[in-house]
Give the backbone structure.
Amino acid sequence: MAAPMGSEMPVSSPSFDPSLPKGFVTDPLARWAHNAPSKSALIASGIDLSYSAMESMTNRIAHALAARHIGRGSRVAFVLDRGPQAILLIIGILKSGAAYVPLDAASPIVRIKECLEDAQPRLVVLENVRLLSDEDTHPSAVSLETLLEEAEKASDSPLPFDAGRSGSDLAYIIFTSGTTGRPKGVPITHESLSNFVAGDQEACIRVEPQDRVFQGFSPASDGHHEEIWPTLLAGATLVVATGKEIYSGTELGAFLNANRVTVVSCAPTMLSMVTDEIPTLRRVLFGAESLPAALVERWWRPGREILNTYGPTEATVGTTFSYCRPGQPVTIGKPLPNYFCYVLGEALEEVPEGAEGELCIAGIGVASGYFGRDNLSALKFVPNPYADPALFNPTLYRTGDRARIDSAGDLLWLGRIDSQVKIRGHRIELSEIESRLADCPAVQSGVVVARESEEEETYLAALIVVREGEDFDLGAVLDSLRDALPSDMVPQALEQV
């Protein structure tokens, strides 16, 4: 295709200035704290924070961080469970001028340390400061409790605006599964995040002030951006779930009903567990994994919109979206504003109309590369041969996804070119698991494959060749994998071959 998808988008592009100051995503909080101070901004178990209280608390956190010499150019990592405190910390970090590095509290210590070694944060905030004991891994660590105590004594006025801030400043680093056996960090700037939030709110999620938006994504997953920032932009209410509600279909259905949730953005796996009807739901955004047509049939109702979204972490949360209806093919649709999608051959050449190729993405949302991983970046982030300087799309991200464009001009996702899979919304590089298997003394070689259960759920199986003369201890191999990998990456089946 000579022209990228995006030049004839069925949505109007938002007014967006790439030099927009860093405060774009946090500014609406202050605006609503002034215009509607008593309105609920965040609801969680036993917590109901007004916009005024949320603005005050996040300002205090920003001042507490500034007192620790955290500011523009700093990176603050945190290892916290999902919940309201993680959200307040994220906002406070951004208000301080720093960037945040969210790490999954359920990850093994080995993986957390690898991410910290790569990110080199100035500060690490932990639920339990004793979680990490190796001082060489991080320059300083503080417990969340201590930081919040410092925040209580700090000013609740906004920090003075740093005139040096720009949209090219770093907003956050998200770590994803890596092909080399080590997680890789994706750095995203404020201009990329601001562009996504503005475009997503205008064209896709479209949160309204009366909405109650479900917040279920882990802060270590970039899906939280689609929940938090459009909600604050619209002056709506964020309804925050705990891990207990997320992983139980019965409890999740009860939680959504009890809190009268109107907008949900989630992986299809999550809502597939829910058997209750949620009458208050008016918009459901599915993403992070392939959407089965049966789930569209299950959740569509007159007056309720079902959307399918697609986007890799490397292109800032979301790239495309489509509206779904029962009986119609499920596609990943067309690009969000200021995104451009291409279906190309191996040499980045145009493919014939309707042919499949690799889905490549350009636009202001594309990251500059992987953090501190120049060799890997050079393979995935390449000069865009179809670039237009006026469109801020000089770099092409090669997604590794196979796709084609149908007769209606919508993108169809056809699977992966490489060995990456998605399970329960989590991106998993099978080669990373295989490299961990190779570290086990008894394992000569191992291959990990994705299989389908009788319930049509994807799971991982490891096929292992044992070294001659070694005793195969299944428990020892599993323990080794659990010590190095998140639970979603540990194979559910191990087979000796």
Observations:
- The first strand starts at residue 40 and ends at 44.
- The chain has 14 helices and 25 strands.
- Residues 6-16 have pLDDT under 50 and may be disordered.
- Residues 66 and 482 are 37 Å apart (CA to CA).
